[in-house]
Amino acid sequence: MDDGDEGAVRATRRKRADARRNEKTLLDAAAAVFVDSGVDAPVRDIAARAGVGMGTIYRHFPTRADLIIAVYRHQVEACAEAGPALLASSATPHAALARWIDLFVDFLITKHGLAAVLRSDQSGFDALHAYFLDRLVPVCAQLLDAAVEAGEIRSDLEAFMLMRGVGNLCVGADADPRYDARRLVELLIAGLRRPA
Question: Can you give the residue ranges of the HTH tetR-type domain (predicted)?
Answer without folding.
Answer: 20-79
